[in-house]
């Protein structure tokens, strides 16, 4: 009887130990999968934001240069309008792109606004050398005062290229929706 009891006790202990090891390995595997899932979720959010950033509201192409307006955000608090665009050289050669001093926007009431701050490329108005089909970001700010409007009725963006440094190329957009914050 003692031998039978000892045999049953050892079988029970071995069964419990055998079950504990797979549980531990399964818990470790679950923790690893959770960490991998969290990383993939972060990457997914990043790519969704990037896709939203590159989704154009309005697009215009002139003289081998494509400009996509991706956002127009106005602030009641700062009384400014910020415009974000992606510009792409659609020719097969590297070009230098520069923005003129003026970007002019017109609201639906006919009020005109000139840009007060313009950034193309790395902190300058002169874009870096723009390679073919590589999108780059540009931003422009306008002081709008107390005026509120649902859209920019017309926007004219004047650019220069290294081929036509003394000629301003107007690129026109119409009916750009404005997102108000604050």
What is this entry, summarized?
Helix content is 29%, strand content 46%. By secondary structure, the protein is of the alpha+beta class. Strands 1, 2, 3, 4, 5, 6, 7, 8, 9 and 10 form a ten-stranded mixed sheet that branches.
The level of helicity is 25-40%
- Poorly predicted residue ranges: none
Radius of gyration: 30 Å
Sheet having the most strands: 10 strands, mixed
Shape from CA axes?
Answer: elongated
Order of helices and strands: HEEEEEEEEEE
Mean of the pLDDT scores?
82
| Total beta-strand segments | 10
The computed structural class is alpha+beta
Percent of residues in β-strands: over 45%
Give a written overview of the molecule.
The model has no long low-confidence stretch (mean pLDDT 82). 29% of the residues lie in helices and 46% in strands. The protein has one helix at 2-54; strands at 58-62, 65-75, 80-89, 95-106, 112-120, 126-130, 136-143, 151-161, 169-177, 179-181. The longest helix is centred in the N-terminal third of the chain and has 53 residues, at 2-54.
Please tag this protein with its features:
single chain; 182 residues; alpha+beta; 10-stranded mixed beta sheet; 10 strands; 29% helix; elongated
Provide the fold topology.
Layout: H1 2-54, E1 58-62, E2 65-75, E3 80-89, E4 95-106, E5 112-120, E6 126-130, E7 136-143, E8 151-161, E9 169-177, E10 179-181
Parallel strand pairs: 2-10
Antiparallel strand pairs: 1-2, 2-3, 3-7, 4-5, 4-6, 4-8, 5-7, 8-9
